[in-house]
Amino acid sequence: MIAGRDLTDRDRAGAPRIAVVNESFVRKFVPGVSPIGMTLTLYPHSALALGPIEIVGVVGDAVY
Questions:
Q1: DSSP of 10-63, one letter per residue?
Q2: Of 7, 32, 55, 64, which is least packed with CB atoms within 10 Å of its CB?
């Protein structure tokens, strides 16, 4: 964990949507800014729209 928090027991169905993003996401979409507290929407112009999703943490990049 680089910034923010990890998932907790409170983060379950029915709770506000949250996300933990990695460093590559931060470099690509919000370079030079902390994403903690920002919100995003997946598929914003579609019937599949999921949002808002609050970014609560940043983790390091990993290779599996």
A1: T-STTSPPEEEEEHHHHHHHSTTS--TT-EEEESTTSTT-EEEEEEEEEE----
A2: 64
- Token representation of residue 58: 């940043």
**pLDDT tens sequence across 46-64:** 888 777 999 999 999 998 8
Using only C-alpha atoms, the chain has a radius of gyration, in whole angstroms, of 12
User: Tokens standing for 10?
Assistant: 């409170």
The pLDDT of residue 53 = 95
Q: Is the Cα torsion angle 35, 17, 2, 24 positive or negative in sign?
A: negative
